[in-house]
Amino acid sequence: MSIGIDDSNIPGPVSEEKTVAFEVPNINSLPDDRLAEIAHMRDGRWSIQTKDLLARFGTTKLDLNSGWASTWTGWSCPCCRREKPQLARLSSGGVLLCRLEFHHDHVADRAKRIYRERNPRSEDRDVNIQISRTKDALMPLVERFEPTLICIDCNFAEGRAKLELTTEIEGDFTFAPSEIATFITVGANRVHEIDAEKARLAWLAAKDDFADRIDFATRMAHRIASGRHRREVAPGQRLLGPAQDCDIIYRLFSSAAPSGYRHRLGTLIEMRSLSNDSAGRSPKPKGRPKVQAPNDAELAAVEAAQHETKTWGQAGPNWLCPCCGRSKREICRRSNRGLWTARIHRVLDYLPEDNEESLVRRRSDATSQFIIGSYRRALICHDCRNITAELLRRTAGFEEQSLTLDDLRELVEGATPHSAHQVDFEKAAALAIANAPLLEAIEDFEDHRSRAIEALAEVKATMKLMGWP
Ligand SMILES: [Zn+2]
Ligand SMILES: [Zn+2]
Ligand SMILES: [Zn+2]
Predict the structure, then answer these.
(1) Which ligand minimizes its atom distance to the CA of 158?
(2) How far is the CA of 103 from the centre of ligand 2 (A)?
(3) Is the pLDDT of residue 150 over 90?
């Protein structure tokens, strides 16, 4: 075979046996400049640019998130066009913010709800597979823009514009990055100003198209519910395909490595890249008048009133609210009529995936930047539970899971016994807006549970196909 290349300089044919020796670095003790080589095209608290920014802003406190770490130092926001050195800014607490977030079209959330209502999960696994795949095929035709990494200022400007026009704009409408660009005034190292009038024009221009897409999603949901658009599933498809060098090399490496050796390079690099100096820095509320505690008889009366709800008993005698840290006695509050009351609520807390293999596998079909691995039930007090309820009452567009337990913990810092929490709802709304990718991940997670069953079925089908036991 001749392909007209002078291969005299290529060191031997590629089929030759080779021994390759290299050192897997200890990420935790690697000097910053070496880390920069390993974490190629990424960023972190170790980069020269980040250090220069900290020096320029005269601070040592840094809040650098995974979005920022996942991009190179020359990245620029597709929306406001600023580059990283113009994006970083100081928070009111003197922390340098280096944060990027995924902005996604909430019309997909609406479409998924419409879809779910008409296509509920069934007992029949095959139907569930069809429903899940058809939904995924449908979403790119419904969304007005792909999930896009943008700077926090552009993401926040989008949220603020929607809040300002909340009576006019339909719920689940989201401004596309190109539309955000039309209503922001951009300056280096500061938040954008927004022009609500221009935002209104962008909404009006997109309004018909938005309605048309919801109409389309509704029609498709009906069609699929009536059994149309079915597509036969090819068993084992995902396990086949051309051999990939990266898979083969990875397997060779894994079999040569000592058994039980866990490298976790990706996770370790991520851990060395991120910085979270913003957490837990909300100012403590000023001293409030001491409220009297219920005596033992009054507490016993509160306990006796709980027989209807299981959560009080399940919490046990030594329970402390995982958000505000108060005990059963401390969460008791005197009602206007002078009666002591208290409640404990059950909520779901979603946890990130920590199994590396499963993380790699699931990243390939997840749409979200986070990957949820599991969830646990948590028992929190009525005052903490009420923060989310109050947020939902005050602002449209948020969901039950819009605030995480960590967010609640931050919002109620300095909670006092026997009184409702004093909450900064502006901050709560900002935290909830920032959690959009988390909600997406939760959605993915719920999908994944049906997909895990699907994947297992594929493996079984392949084994049958190959004649394995
Ligand atoms: Zn931007
Ligand atoms: Zn957004
Ligand atoms: Zn609490």
Answers:
(1) 2
(2) 4
(3) yes
Distance 196 CA to ligand 3 centre (A): 37
Convert the pLDDT of each residue in 319-362 to its tens digit. 999 998 899 999 998 887 788 889 999 988 877 666 656 666 66
pLDDT at res. 9: 55
What residues form DSSP beta bridges with 129? none
Q: How far is the CA of 143 from the centre of ligand 2 (A)?
A: 13
Q: Which ligand is nearest to the CA of 419?
A: 3
* Nearby residues of 382 by Cβ (< 8 Å), 6 or more positions away: 331, 342, 343, 344, 345
The alpha carbon dihedral of 413, 419, 425, 431 has a sign of: positive
Is 66 or 457 the better-scoring residue by pLDDT? 66
Any idea which ligand is nearest the CA of 154?
Answer: 1
The dihedral built from the CA positions of residue 353, 354, 358 and 360, taken in this order, carries a sign that is positive
Q: Which ligand is nearest to the CA of 326?
A: 3
Q: How far is the CA of 305 from the centre of ligand 2 (A)?
A: 44
Supply φ then ψ for residue 331, to 5 degrees: -85, -5
Q: Find the ligand nearest to 161 CA.
A: 2
Give the closest ligand to the alpha carbon of residue 323: 3
Phi/psi at 346 (5° precision): -95, 130
Please tell me the number of the ligand nearest to residue 180's CA: 1
Q: What's the CA-to-centroid distance between 181 and ligand 2, angstroms? A: 13
Residue 62 dihedral angles phi and psi, to the nearest 5°: -135, 135
Name the residue ranges covered by the structural domains of the chain: 21-231+263-279, 291-453
Q: DSSP character for 283?
A: P
Q: With cut-offs at 50, 70 and 90, classify the pLDDT of residue 34.
A: very high
Q: E-assigned strands of 226-381?
A: 275-276, 333-334, 340-341, 344-352, 372-381
Q: 146 C-alpha to center of ligand 1: Å?
A: 16
Residues with CB under 5 Å of ion ligand 2 are: 103, 155
Residue 282 pLDDT > 50 = no
CB environment 389-421: b (16+ within 10 A), e (fewer): eebbeebebbeebbbbbebbbbbbbebbbbeeb
- What is the predicted pLDDT for the residue at 259? 79
Q: What percent of the chain has pLDDT over 90?
A: 41
How many CB atoms within 10 Å of residue 301? 15
- Radius of gyration of the chain from its Cα atoms, rounded to whole angstroms: 27
The most confident of the ranges 125-139, 143-157, 395-409, 445-459 is 143-157
Residue 191 CA to ligand 2 centre (angstroms): 15
List the end-to-end C-alpha distance of the chain, in Å, as a whole number: 43
**311 half-sphere exposure, CB direction, 13 A CA radius:** 15
